[in-house]
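Q: Got a minute? One more chain.
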Amino acid sequence: MNKISQYFESHKSQLQVAWFLVFGLCALIAQLVSRIVCDIVFQNLENTITIWPFPSQTLGSFLAFLISNIIAKVISFVTNRKKTFEANNNIYFSIIVYVILVIVLIIVETIIGTPLQNAIYTLVGGTFNGAQATIAATSQVLYQTCGVVSQLIYGIGDAVIVFFMDKYLIMTKD
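A: Always. Here it is, folded:
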């Protein structure tokens, strides 16, 4: 038991990465489930709204996005603060900096999301210039797949940024 304890103490950063990923996955699952529930609850809110930097969408869709994101971020903040980083610094400072970080990342993701998706589509579309690219349905599926790839790219980037911000600024030990 002592060797296990010594191992984890000497590999604290690797353990933090592992816990960060586990809690991130839990937050992601909560976000997906809450998004589905919110989409159902708010399905009748069909007024179209436009709020910078988000594209025009229904009020219900925007609320579902917003609420599910908040749920995921709260789960991530609490679990990582208490378990991953065992932070004991000023909670108010941590919350303020974390909220600012999350808002900036969401804005950046929203701004770069479609251009990144389009760039990937153009890059991949250039490879598939045969008969497949001329079929509208295949082209739409390819475009949506490129959207998922772009989300993975900036999602991984977000995770790296949030991990280091949490570890060295937001969730420190005094």
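A: The two ends are 28 Å apart (CA to CA).
Q: Perfect, thanks.
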